[in-house]
Amino acid sequence: MSAPDNESDYEGDEIEFAGGDSDEELDEEALVWQLMLLINPGDEDTALQQFARYRETCEDDADAEPAETIQEVIDWTSGYRVDWKDTGSFIDSIAQLASRWNLSVDWGVEDPTDEDFLDATDVPELMAKAFVRLREHGYTLWNRDTGSDMYAGWITLRRDDENMEAVAAALGIDIRLGSDAY
C-alpha cells in the first residue's frame, strides 16, 4: 500500500453515513434516520417506527427541538432519561435497553435494587459502570447534554462510535461517552 501522492488524496475523507453520499449535505430528517439506525442496531423495524413518530411530532410542531423529540420517541425502548438522583430508574432503563441484545449489566452487587446500594451510589457512577460492562460486549453507552438535571442517552454498537459522534454533532446534540457524565 502506498502513501497518498498529494493533498487532493485527502479530499472527501468525511465519514460516510449509511445510505448517503458523503458529498451531499444531509438534511435534519436524514440525520435523524441515521441516528435511529445507530441506536437500534439490527432492529430496523423499531428504527422505522420511531422515525415515523418523530416525523409525526415534527409535523404537529414545526418548532420541535430535535434532541427532545428524538428522546420522546425512543424513551425506554432505545434510550433512557432519568432524574439526576433516580438511581433505581437508571438501573431499570439500562437493564431494559441491554436486554434487547440478551445482555445484562453487572452492577457489582448481588441485588442492584437494594435500597442501601441505591442510596450509596449516583447516576454518573452507575453510568460509568454500565459503560465499562457494555464495552466488554461491543456496545457503547452514550449520554447527552439535556440542559437540565436529567440524564439521557442511548446505546450503540462500539464500532459505530465515530458515526454516532458525527451524526449527533450534525444534529447539534452534545453527547459524551457514558464514562463521562454531564
TrEMBL record:
Residues 32-177 form the DUF6630 domain. InterPro entries: DUF6630. It holds the Pfam family DUF6630. Residues 1-22 are annotated as: Disordered. This is DUF6630 domain-containing protein. It comes from Lysobacter antibioticus. The lineage of its organism: Bacteria, Pseudomonadati, Pseudomonadota, Gammaproteobacteria, Lysobacterales.
